[in-house]
Amino acid sequence: MNDMSNTPKSVEAPHNLSAEAGVLGAILYDNNAFQRVADILRATDFYSIPHQEIFEVCSTMIQGGRVADGITLREHFEKADKLQEIGGASYLAELLDSAAFGPEITDYARMIRDFAMRRDLIDIGATVQHRAFKPEPEEDGDKQLELAERQLFDLADRGSSGRGFHSFSTALKESLAMAEAAFKRDGKIAGVASQLDDLDTMLGGFHKSDLVILAGRPSMGKTTLATNIAFNAAQACRREAQPDGSKKTVEGAVVAFFSLEMSCEQLATRIIADRTGLNAHHIRQGDLDASDFEKIRQATEELQNLPLYIDDQGGISISQLAARARRLKRTSGLDMVVIDYLQLLTSTTGKASDSRVQEITQITMGLKALAKELNVPVIALSQLSRQVEQREDKRPQLSDLRESGSIEQDADVVMFVYRESYYLERTEPQSGGEDPASAEKWTKWRQRMDEVLGTAEVIIGKQRHGPIGRVTLAFDANTTRFGNLKRQQPEPDFG
User: Fold this and answer.
1) What is the protein's quaternary organization (predicted)?
2) Distance CA 372, CA 366 (A)
3) 346 and 198 within one domain
């Protein structure tokens, strides 16, 4: 006799036909019930094909201002020659007998949606398995992982209860909470603070869901400024445990830094130089003595647990970047994203027919969508066109942004880094010897050089939520660091 205990049994996909019948019966009995489930359910959430078709027809009729009941549905399906496919007129009558009344209709709707998501999970798992066994020619492991993550995130977003409209009272509460958080902070900063006081005052910190563009010509220090902001935010990070076991950031930020140009080692060197006050070039060259090396060792120990995560893979697409940011938020939390720099990203489509302007448009739209989706500020560095160099005043303007149309349009904040000393160094006049005019010209140049040396301007060219203008920061080229400008203290009056 054969042992049948190990014979595989077919497993039916999760569903509940009684709940489906209860919801459909309630809608047929009273069309107002549809409004209670319309934001929860879609036709494909129903397991039964006839139930899918009935819900779809009910939805079309009700939203079109018509009555959806046993009589109108019978007429509809008879005309379409589908009455028998849904179980006949008798089944429509059975649905009415199964109608759910009262608050249970929403409970049934959520149950149906839950089963639908579980079925989708099963389908995703099967698809991932099939794709892994029989991949398409262009699908390597990374691409397959990206596709799987995208499917799972879409499903998670579908299951989120936070979709749809928010009442104005909810919006008011969130606004009040933001104002309260700013009020309680010493610096009165609502967003993530950069610890650069004048910049924080102008911006109010970096706000959730904002796309911030930080632009500048080469050697202006935009990567340095972005690194400083990321480091300062991560260093100030403080998280508190919540009743559900999760952690909430109450100060600073968990930061994701996408370095598409520099390696993570180069970024770390800049941060160590900032922390220790040592020359970054000397650190790279190993031009150090024993005390210098001890400073580096101590700084390394202090920064071990810094919530700053660096991804230095070059040439990634906007979809890959988004997938990695979502993964980090899910596993470690995420409060800020920094991208160095925008023009090194590729669009998701990657079509040869797309112009660079079209591609940049897709990228900036994708970054703005990501900022809103993850509810974090996204700071993206950008290059400037060479037309800056053709002007006498080389302070950047919005029109200097490469592919400026989409970048300027999608950004909530546009900032420029400008160092006048960089240009002055390259225009030193001849001292002129005995020539008074040349000597005077050189003296004026020297005076101006002394005024701007060690400083940098951050020009706020656009800000949706606040003023535009300029702030002046201290800049130390030795340690590649931006800092707060020391204010001249008034001389004491002993008179």
Assistant:
1) Homohexamer.
2) 10
3) yes
Retrieve residue 220's tokens.
């202006």
Instruction: Look up the CATH number of the domain holding residue 151.
Output: 1.10.860.10
pLDDT digits (tens, 9 = 90+) for 160-176: 544 555 555 656 666 66
* 216 vs 388, higher pLDDT: 216
For tokens 């989409």, what's the residue? 406
Q: Determine phi and psi for 347, rounding to 5 degrees.
A: -75, 165
Question: Which tens digits make up the pLDDT trace of 414-459?
Answer: 999 988 888 888 877 777 666 777 778 888 888 888 888 888 889 9
**DSSP code per residue over 161-206:** TT-S---HHHHHHHHHHHHHHHHHSTT---SB--S-HHHHHHHTSB
Q: Which tens digit of pLDDT belongs to each residue from 287-326?
A: 777 877 787 888 888 777 888 888 888 778 887 788 888 8
Query: Quick one: pLDDT at residue 337?
Result: 94
Question: How many C-beta atoms lie closer than 10 Å to residue 308's C-beta?
Answer: 23
| Backbone conformation region of residue 65, classed left if phi is above 0, alpha if psi is from -120 to 50, else beta | left
Asked whether residue 78 is assigned to any structural domain, the reply reads yes
**In this structure, what token pair is assigned to residue 2?**
């054969």
**Gap between the Cα atoms of 124 and 132, Å rounded:** 12
**What backbone phi and psi angles, to 5 degrees, belong to 242?**
-100, 160
Nearest to 22 by CA among 49, 55, 44: 55
Distance CA 6, CA 9 (A): 9
Nearest to 326 by CA among 461, 460, 160: 160
493 confidence band (pLDDT: 50, 70, 90): very low
Amino acid at 61: M
- Residues 237 and 106 occupy one common structural domain: no
Q: Bridge-partner residues for 382, per DSSP?
A: 215
pLDDT recorded at residue 379: 93
What is the mean predicted confidence (pLDDT) over 33-58? 88
* Domain range for 329: 177-418
